[in-house]
Write a structure and sequence with these properties.
This protein has four helices and no strands. The protein is mainly alpha-helical.
Length: 108
C-alpha cells in the first residue's frame, strides 16, 4: 500500500516543480531577484563570520538577527496574503502558530 501512496504523491510533486521552473524561464526579473536573495543569504553570514570587525564589509551580529526577524515577519505576511488573497479565507492559525513560535523562543 505504501508504494501506491508514494507513486500517487510523487508525480504531483514533480509536476509542481516543473510548473515553477517553466514559469520562471521567461521571467528575467524574477530570476535576478531570486539570485540576489540567494546571494544575500549566503554572503551576509559569511561577511559576519569571516571578516574581522574592523573591515568595512563586516556585518554585525545584531544586523543579522534583525534581518532574521524581518524575514520571519515577511514569511508570515506572505503566508497570510496567499491564504487570504487567493482563497478569501482569513486564517488565524498563521498568527497562532507564529505566536506559539515566539513564545517558545522566549522560553528557550
Amino acid at each position: 500500500m505504501q508504494s501506491t501512496i508514494q507513486s500517487s504523491v510523487h508525480p504531483a510533486g514533480a509536476a509542481s516543480k516543473s510548473f515553477v521552473l517553466a514559469a520562471m524561464r521567461g521571467d528575467k526579473g524574477g530570476q535576478l531577484t531570486i539570485l540576489a536573495i540567494l546571494a544575500a543569504v549566503v554572503l551576509i553570514p559569511l561577511a559576519n563570520t569571516l571578516l574581522p570587525p574592523g573591515h568595512p564589509l563586516h556585518v554585525e551580529t545584531f544586523t543579522i538577527s534583525l534581518m532574521g526577524k524581518y524575514l520571519s515577519y515577511a514569511m508570515l505576511a506572505l503566508a497570510v496574503d496567499l491564504v487570504w488573497g487567493y482563497l478569501g479565507i482569513l486564517s488565524l492559525g498563521h498568527g497562532a502558530f507564529f505566536a506559539l513560535g515566539g513564545y517558545a523562543w522566549v522560553c528557550i
